[in-house]
Design goal:
alpha+beta, two-stranded antiparallel ribbon
Length: about 110
């Protein structure tokens, strides 16, 4: 952490104490992108960061079998949320909710 980050943490009520001679541990994580395994060396390996990386889909070991890789989606099938009124496919549920408002009749004044 640099001094600006330590100062910012102090503003939120946290006390950061750096231990001399104790560098932040680093390790290599693996991530699967587009069906290929990508090595991500030199990322922090403290418990907090490790939990964050694992929640984001990183792994600690290199997948050995092809079956461990995620299978690609079949061609032609829509990915996301489909509007029941017009059939438009949206990427998120929030986008679908916003889009569905366009189908409601507008009140005239």
């Amino acid at each position: 952490m640099d001094k600006a980050q330590i100062r910012t943490m102090g503003l939120f009520g946290y006390a950061v104490e750096e231990l001399p001679g104790k560098p932040l541990p680093k390790m290599t994580y693996y991530k699967i992108e587009r069906g290929e395994v990508v090595a991500m060396p030199g990322l922090p390996a403290d418990p907090h960061n490790m939990e964050r990386y694992l929640k984001r889909g990183f792994t600690l070991t290199l997948p050995k079998m092809r079956s461990e890789l995620p299978q690609p989606l079949p061609e032609g099938e829509p990915v996301g949320f489909t509007c029941e009124t017009c059939g438009k496919v949206l990427s998120t549920r929030l986008a679908l909710v916003g889009h569905s408002r366009s189908h409601k009749p507008k009140l005239e004044v």
